[in-house]
Write a structure and sequence with these properties.
426 residues; alpha/beta; Aminopeptidase; Alpha-Beta Plaits; 10 helices; 16 strands; 23% strand
Length: 426
């Protein structure tokens, strides 16, 4: 007699063309964020499909979230299918938004081109291929085991690329990602099909402004250059902060290896007045200079220490450098998070990878954040991982693609994980 696992895997093999077609269909919705285009039609497409498999569908607009308006409503879809008897709830969460197209493409970004075993398009890798794999996985499981125990949920959420506030954060604040509603969450981010991602580093974004006094550029001694003050900040960063960050190495299994240390990037630097219409500069001493910093920190560090080591440098300059004045404004912060690799969803996924791919999976953490942060911190749900097809290096790149073999393998892993977690009793 064929086992349930064998039936499910065979069904997925029979539906590879359908998996590719679904991925292409999702890519053809140009869900660019910002501003948040085509969210509603994409969400409704997912809802219509899943309703045919017995899912109850809810559309949740994140009213009042950043960017939400009548022109670009933040529409999320949540599909829920109750089983024949009580059991855990397994939830697959995929974001439907994609970043802007950018330049350098050699293929149409929203056509869903299939070539040489790959599906091309903006969002193919990050993460419409992963969402399609999750949908095909649960459909194959339902068709093989229509009276499954427990509950299956799939959500298509928005705004992950801009922090997730109109998507997972909004839902988590309202109990959609907390027990007893949900027990286990898989986010199909593109982190390679032979790896289980159990968390991510923290992030702190801030804008620093140094202040000066405007004067004529031919007589700078009558003014006070905010740009030169910012140069002093940069010098202190180079001499004091960067060497210290390089010493901090995490026990988190962050990939690539360079991201196991604390890092800080200068995202932007703007100083002085705008140039004239003829392209020539204005002959003025800069009275303002602004810098945005992107600080990524480790689970061993505290957010308050991350803030203070920057503000201490600025305050020391204010005491030691004549006329140094500054403002600092926090833009965004997220604590690091990491699930237990021996927890139910991580361990079950690792075992399924071993079975499907016959390789020893590795446990990793992401250098950047994704929506696990909201499920962990707001929903207080710890049994959450990221697992999906694709390579993170391809995300946001021109000619983004996802491999068909990877999507098929990921769908098989997700189906086995779902089946086994639904039957979990402890």
């Amino acid at each position: 007699m064929t086992s349930l696992s064998e039936q499910v895997l065979d069904r997925i093999d029979d539906r590879v063309d359908e998996l590719v077609e679904l991925t292409c269909d999702l890519i053809r919705f140009p869900t660019i964020n910002p501003p948040g285009e085509a969210y509603q039609p994409c969400a409704e497409f997912i809802g219509r499909r899943l309703s045919k498999r017995g899912f109850d569908i809810e559309y949740v607009r994140a009213v009042g979230a950043p960017g939400d308006n009548d022109a670009y409503p933040r529409i999320n879809v949540v599909a829920r299918r109750e089983g024949s008897r009580p059991g855990p709830c397994v939830h697959f969460n995929g974001h439907i938004d994609v970043v802007e197209v950018g330049s350098g493409w050699t293929v149409p970004p929203f056509d869903g081109l299939v070539r040489d075993g790959k599906v091309y398009g903006r969002g193919a890798c990050d993460m419409k291929g992963g969402l399609a794999s999750a949908i095909i996985a649960v459909e194959a499981l339902i068709d093989s085991d229509p009276r499954h125990p427990g509950t299956i949920e799939i959500s298509g959420t928005v705004d992950e690329e801009s922090g997730g506030y109109g998507g997972v954060a909004y839902l988590a604040e309202r109990g959609w990602f907390s027990t007893p509603r949900v027990d286990h969450v898989v986010i199909p981010e593109p982190l390679n099909v032979d790896r289980v991602c159990i968390g991510h580093r923290g992030v702190w974004w801030a804008e620093i402004e140094t202040k000066g006094r405007m004067a004529h550029g031919s007589m700078p001694f009558l003014g006070d250059s905010a740009i030169r003050h910012m140069a002093a900040v940069l010098e202190r960063f180079e001499q004091e902060l960067y060497p210290e960050l390089a010493k901090r190495i995490s026990e988190m299994p962050v990939v690539p290896d360079g991201a196991r240390q604390s890092t800080m990037n200068i995202n932007s630097l703007h100083g002085g007045q705008e140039g004239g219409h003829d392209g020539l500069p204005t002959p003025c001493v800069a009275d303002s200079c602004r810098m945005v910093i992107d600080r990524r920190f480790l689970i061993e560090e505290k957010l308050e220490d991350v803030r203070s080591e920057v503000t201490n440098i600025l305050e020391n300059l204010a005491r030691s450098r004549p006329n140094f004045r500054f403002d600092i404004r926090e833009l965004f912060s997220v604590e690091p998070c990491m699930s237990d690799k021996n927890g139910p969803v991580a361990a079950t996924t690792a075992a399924a990878i071993q079975e499907v791919l016959t390789v020893n999976p590795s446990f990793i953490c992401s250098p950047g954040t994704y929506d696990q942060k909201h499920i962990d911190r707001i929903g207080k749900l710890k049994d959450c991982i990221a697992y999906g097809p694709g390579m993170l290096d391809l995300a946001h790149q021109p000619d983004e693609w996802v491999g068909i073999e990877d999507m098929t393998a990921a769908a098989k892993v997700m189906a086995l994980v779902t089946s086994r977690l639904l039957r979990r009793t402890v």
